[in-house]
Every structure is written in C-alpha cells, then in structure tokens.
Amino acid sequence: SHPQDSSDDIEDVSLFDADDDVSRRSKKSKIRHPVASFFHLFFRVSAIVVYLLCELLTSSFIACMVTIILLLSCDFWAVKNVTGRLMVGLRWWNQVDDDGRSHWVFEARKVSAQGSKTSSEAESRIFWLGLITCPMIWVIFAFSALFSFKVKWLAVVMMGVVLQGANLYGYIRCKVGSRKNLTSMATNYLGKQFLRQ
What we know:
Layout: E1 9-13, H1 20-25, H2 34-57, H3 61-88, E2 90-96, E3 102-109, H4 121-147, H5 151-178, H6 180-196
Parallel strand pairs: 1-3
Antiparallel strand pairs: 2-3
Helix pairs in contact: 2-3, 2-4, 3-5, 4-5
C-alpha cells in the first residue's frame, strides 16, 4: 500500500452545467429531485429496518446478512455517485496517479453567476439528516451487539458503520473543503489588520 498524499485535491467545478439555468428558476424549498431524495433514504433506512426485524421475519442469518450488505452497498454507491451531486452539489472520490500515490478529490458545484444557491434547502436538509443520523444508529447497533455478545451480527453492523461512515466523512470533507479558501482569506485579512494596529 502507498502512503496517502497529505495534500488533498479540492476543486470547485460545475457538475451539471445544463441544470444551472433550471435550478436558478426553481424555488429553494421545492424538492427538485424527488427520486434521488427517495433513494437517498430508502436503502439506508431499509437496511436498518431489515436489521431490526430480520429475526422476526426469518431464522436464516445468511439471508439477513446478505440482504443488509446488499442494501448498504446500494446505499453507498447511490449516495456517493448520485444523490450527493444532485441534492447538494458535492462529490468525492479517490484516484491513484501514475506514481502509485493515492489522492482524495473533493468537489463542490460552482455558485451561479448571480451568487444564488443551486441546491434546494429542503433537499439539503434531507441529505444531511439522512447522512448523519443513519451512521449514528449503526454505531448504537455496534455497541448493542458488542455488549449483548451477538458476535455474528457484529460484522454486519461494522459494515454499516464503515460504509455509511465513509460517505459521511467524504461529504463533510467536501463541505469543509469548499469553504477552505474563504477561511484562509478571512484569516489573512484579520492577521493584516492586527499587524497594522
């Protein structure tokens, strides 16, 4: 394995140029991507429901485990590749360069020429609520499985923590990274004012 490059690539790019004009005309509170909003919550909530009810529905641990892992995998792919771009204009991924070094890339959609937000506030709330709440529930499940000595379920629960936690970490880095330049500009300005005094 190669050491992770300490300098992450943070770019400000337009992910959907064709959608910019449409998004300017839409209301902020309107859900412009109902299918994406539905699937953003569907897979992650379904995995939690199956985990809670699987012992009531079937006695087969293997069937439950495969179903939960499939739902978690579908959720990871959908949130990372589709719903993040559509709902909040953020995207992240990892790429390996020719030297074999790993780079994490975090992207944010460009702000429109009028300076208005291209993301709906309602969609943004749904996205972040689902993104933060569900990994917390899987962490609770992990402690519950650990303290109740349900070792066979611990692997399944850890998959939930890892997959959903990775998306949460990636999108938090995207959100913070998009403000990084603004923060450094403000710090430099305040430093200069302090030195003048």
